[in-house]
Every structure is written in structure tokens, then in C-alpha cells.
């Protein structure tokens, strides 16, 4: 591993659901500005508040960004 990595907070929409689109936008911005990766659902990501399904939503959104847009 080399370069800068950031802890990604978990964004929620107005109804309290994980906001996958905002995850994508945050990651796009980070990659465009030199980040090499993200730490998901950790301390900043409120992992202890997320259900298993919500964690899967976060991982799925992040996976799509990495595989289909940035190929990191």
C-alpha cells in the first residue's frame, strides 16, 4: 500500500437509509484528488450502528465505484 487513504463516513438520506449515490460522489471526488483508497464502515463509518444489510449496501456502492469507474 502506498499513497493516501481516507476513512469514509456513511452518508444517510432524508429517510435514514444508506445513501449509495453520495458514497459514489465522495469516492469519485477523493480519487479525482489523489486518494488511493478508502476505509469503509470503520470508526467514521458508524459500523456499530449499521445492520448487516446496510454494511453490504456500503460495500456494494464502493465496489461499483472502484470496479466500474476507477479501476484502482
Tell me what you see in this structure:
The protein is mainly alpha-helical and 72 residues long. It has one domain. It is 44% helix and 8% strand. It contains 2 helices and 2 strands. It has a two-stranded parallel ribbon. Strand 1, helix 1 (20-32) and strand 2 (37-39) form a beta-alpha-beta unit. Helix 1 crosses helix 2. The longest helix has 19 residues, at 52-70. The model has no long low-confidence stretch (mean pLDDT 90).
Low-confidence region ranges? none
| Distance, first to last CA | 12 Å
Radius of gyration: 12 Å
Residue share in helix = 40-55%
Furnish the topology, listing elements before pairings:
Elements: E1 5-7, H1 20-32, E2 37-39, H2 52-70
Parallel strand pairs: 1-2
Helix pairs in contact: 1-2
Using brief descriptors, characterize the structure shown.
single chain, 72 residues, two-stranded parallel sheet, 2 helices, 8% strand
Give a short synopsis of this structure.
This protein is mainly α and 72 residues long. It has helices spanning 20-32, 52-70, and strands at residues 5-7, 37-39. The chain has one domain (5-70).
